[in-house]
Amino acid sequence: MIRRPGQRGFTVISWDQALDTIATAARATRGERVAIYLTSRGITNEVYYAAQKAARFMGSNHVDNSARLCHAASTSAMRVALGYGAATCSYVDWLNADLIVLFGSNVPNNQPVTTKYLHHAKQNGAQIAIVNPYREPGLVRYWIPSIARSAVSGTALADHWFDVHTGGDSAFLLGVLRALIERGGVDEAFVRDLTSDFVLARAVALAESWTGIEAASGMTRERIEEFAQLLMDRPNTVFVWSMGLTQHVNGVETIKALMNVGLARGLPGRPNRGLVPIRGHSGVQGGAEVGCVPKVDSATAARWAGLWGFPVPQTPGWTAPEMVEHSARGEVDLFWMVGGNFLETLADMDRSRAALRRPRLRIHQDVVLSSSMLVDGDGDVLLLPATTRYESPGGGCETSTERRIIFSPEIPGRRIGSARPEWWVFREVMTRIDPQRANLVGMSDAAAIRREIARAIPLYAGIETLSRKGDQVQWGGRTLYADGRFATPDGRAHFAAAPLSAEPRAPDTFLMSTRRGKQFNSMIQRDFDPLTGARRDSVLMSAADMTRLRLEDGAAVRLRSAHGSFEGRLLRAPIKPGNLEVHWPEGMSLLAGDAIDPDSMEPDYNATVTVEPLTMIERASAGVVTA
Prior knowledge:
This protein is an alpha/beta fold. Helices cover 33% and strands 18% of the residues. Strand 22 and strand 23 (534-535) form a beta hairpin. Helix 2 (45-57) runs parallel beside helix 21 (422-433), helix 9 runs antiparallel to helix 12 and helix 9 runs parallel beside helix 15 (251-264). The two termini are 45 Å apart.
């Protein structure tokens, strides 16, 4: 369907008309004014690869994926430290670990399948430690449906709680490294034989005062030392982390601090221990790995150019937040989005709306309708119906947190209208942009794309063999770096300087983070979360803070940040005093649109706020009903 400027609604058109519209616009657009973004909702590696190839065929490196909003900080830091931005171990290693530490990660809510591994790990003697401001009820006890006893009585998960401040993880980890150094808890042989730059990291850790570390982390020296001792007592440790560490302006620095501790304890490259940046979607790990990113190294660009028969652009590409910023300034003429909804996932809705409005052609390719599709455009707006990965001819692959490239076959059955596979659309557009170069497009079917990926991405060798349900290949094997050689230029793992970076907080303010409830991304939310007892407008606050402010559980309040306000109701919760949590995307109004990690370009989904009670009149005006 297409909607032209000034039209009240969309008009149905044929696929030929839609493809010709895109091709005509692409021919009239300079490559540096083309941007393509893909979300992670079940998108296959084949689609990611086709999209990034199409972008470069059009002369643009402005192609990115939704990992930019979640684990870009992990990828940036891990590539420097280890070589790859991926888990170093497998789930089977959890089963025989001594200790599993979850940093800023609520796996029962976000990755519930992992809870069965936690259950069996505990049966085998492992302990679980949580580093988080909020004591997630699902991490206290969780009912695992695939295990009969747990389904009835639940499984007690957490053994240890370390309630850091929101954003205090880097200081906490710096303190842990210092405690390990002072207590003789560094794996000296591993550090000496397999790493570099420990002297620098050691000097930074010892130079910081315990007073500064305690203030920034929210943890006492004794508690930090207790955590360090726990690592020493239980050497087979697995670190698991998620958005609680990465979605900060200092996300990369935090992951550097985490890598320092992991290297000091010799965690990567050994069985039953490791480092796991856990993913929330099965379709997200592979996006960057098959090239759907704005920057690739020169060797990769040369390999692709030789394989494809056309050059890879040399101009720097834009990350997803940069695409939105440039588009809002009128610097994007063709904006192609496969899934995603910037209007509900990025801070500064006015900027996102402008970014959607200004292109000469805006393309939305998706399996569902979103609010972004309905934003009026200065140019044409094109909606393309997509198949799910289970309807795609020839099947498709996704890459899991474990680095497993898993094949999903096409499932026979009724098909929806004119929906087409996303890779097919990119291929067809490429052939129409420049018919004289159509012979260079390739990608005749899904299997052909997998064969091409195997040649273009050496890491993905074996993907070309996948064709049946259950087929999979795990790049790097069960244990990444098992041979003691890391994927860095010198083959060694690298420590980094990770000094304290916390700024002092003004009196009477709170550190606020956004959280998931009972929901699927920004699309579907259940009003009530049975795990936490929270509703969508709940503001999670500690009992101590409620007493200090003389506020009751259920009181209607307004949160204010430097960028906006949010009205909701207080919910007494086991959260560290001085910290608050609200649901995402409802709390987006409090976030700064320009708060972005400078190294990874990952947005910050936290804010410093004040809390004020609402009057009866204000409650009625805001639509907040006190329980």
